[in-house]
Amino acid sequence: MNTFLNRYKSDFKATFNLALPIITAQVGVMLMGFADTVQVGRMAQGSVPALAAAADANGIFFNIAIIGYICLQVVAPLVSSAQSSNNPGQCKQLLRASVVVSLIMSVICALLIVLIGLNIDLLKQPKEIKSMTLDFLWIITVSIFPSFVFSAIKSFTDGLSHTKVAMQITVSALLLNVVINHFLINGYKNIIPALGLNGAGYATLTARIYMAVAIIIYTLRDKAFKPYLQASTQGLDSIKTLIGKIMKLGIPSGFQGFSEVAAFYGAVVMMGWISLPHKAAHQVAIGFVSMTFMAATGIGAAGGIRVGSGMGEKSKKAIIDAGTSALLMGLIFMGTCSIIFLVFNDFLASYVKDDQVVALAAELIIWGGIFQLFDGTQAVSVGILRGIADVNVPTIITFIAYWVVGLPMCYFLGFVLDLKHIGIWIGLTSSLLVSASLLSWRFYAKANKLWH
């Protein structure tokens, strides 16, 4: 055991130092949505329909936006590999290409969100929350443009191992979001009207604009990035090539995220078939699960950057050790979260001012605790697989796990066997188990075949 730990000690430390700021930034992004849920959930009146509407709007938004977010994440390992190969000009071109891709994906994703919103009746959700859902959805859809620009530049800075840049900006944006939420959701005397759920939407939009502007200014002014920004390049042709490369790697990666997020949103839709309180409870529970998931993706992103560095060095040992240390870190972190969810489920759900929603959410948080290890393993595996530019087979794996196994199990257990909300979350657990097993196996199978 000591030999095993000593072997990965240095890799674990390097991954941890790189991952911690990424995790903080990733969780900070989720905390913005979670802050919306908490502050809307504490509204004196209308908290249950507002939570259900937020579940629908956020579900539609993230189902589509996740494709762009993850598409842009593939830039970080590419930048890391270019840096390890001592090619600053390539790093600069990757930054330029990623910003162009962010604008392209913003337009595509925004149009898809609008299309789904205009056909929201197909989801057969409670009619009383339709207008509230759409109003909130249109506001947060506008935020996709600054959010993607931030993600593009974040991938550049993360790839150069300057992960604290995005962390600092995200934490400050979170604080800004909470403050604006307070005034816009509840109003302030006779100066600011109470906008309810829409107030949370405007707060999110403001925070995301701030994040984009802040990271642009930071990157242009910080001395650490000048060698890359001032490096000589090969012109527009290389940018076009890199745009194609990012899209080729990023879009399949984005659909990996879509497969999971869409499956979880499918669970939101099914909860709406049961009752409005069930749907609100799902939104409460998924807020906690989403935060731990984003932390795990942060570990996966850090692992992917270190794996990408190993690719630049053409070192199989460096690649496998970096991937293993990331998986171990993910298991330790998610195992800790699992214990917290299982022990403090009632306390975590207690912020909502509706006893029925609290009771249902507490039950779901228990299941969130049960699948933490599976969720962490699959999230980290996806990240380190991107580091070796393996995206097509993992996309097929995630589709099978969530759409062939997960969603049918959710429906069968929830409605055929009438286990309702518990059955739906058991179905989600089964999809995470399949995804975790196959993706972690895929990493080692693929890594061991490099340079044979």
TrEMBL record:
<feature type="transmembrane region" description="Helical">
    <location>
        <begin position="255"/>
        <end position="274"/>
    </location>
</feature>
<keyword id="KW-1003">Cell membrane</keyword>
<dbReference type="InterPro" id="IPR002528">
    <property type="entry name" value="MATE_fam"/>
</dbReference>
<feature type="transmembrane region" description="Helical">
    <location>
        <begin position="200"/>
        <end position="220"/>
    </location>
</feature>
<dbReference type="InterPro" id="IPR048279">
    <property type="entry name" value="MdtK-like"/>
</dbReference>
<feature type="transmembrane region" description="Helical">
    <location>
        <begin position="326"/>
        <end position="344"/>
    </location>
</feature>
<feature type="transmembrane region" description="Helical">
    <location>
        <begin position="94"/>
        <end position="116"/>
    </location>
</feature>
<feature type="transmembrane region" description="Helical">
    <location>
        <begin position="395"/>
        <end position="416"/>
    </location>
</feature>
<feature type="transmembrane region" description="Helical">
    <location>
        <begin position="60"/>
        <end position="82"/>
    </location>
</feature>
<feature type="transmembrane region" description="Helical">
    <location>
        <begin position="280"/>
        <end position="305"/>
    </location>
</feature>
<feature type="transmembrane region" description="Helical">
    <location>
        <begin position="136"/>
        <end position="153"/>
    </location>
</feature>
<dbReference type="Pfam" id="PF01554">
    <property type="entry name" value="MatE"/>
</dbReference>
<feature type="transmembrane region" description="Helical">
    <location>
        <begin position="165"/>
        <end position="185"/>
    </location>
</feature>
<keyword id="KW-0812">Transmembrane</keyword>
<keyword id="KW-0406">Ion transport</keyword>
<keyword id="KW-0813">Transport</keyword>
<feature type="transmembrane region" description="Helical">
    <location>
        <begin position="422"/>
        <end position="444"/>
    </location>
</feature>
<keyword id="KW-0472">Membrane</keyword>
<feature type="transmembrane region" description="Helical">
    <location>
        <begin position="12"/>
        <end position="35"/>
    </location>
</feature>
<dbReference type="InterPro" id="IPR050222">
    <property type="entry name" value="MATE_MdtK"/>
</dbReference>
<protein>
    <recommendedName>
        <fullName>Multidrug-efflux transporter</fullName>
    </recommendedName>
</protein>
<keyword id="KW-1133">Transmembrane helix</keyword>
<feature type="transmembrane region" description="Helical">
    <location>
        <begin position="356"/>
        <end position="374"/>
    </location>
</feature>
<keyword id="KW-0050">Antiport</keyword>
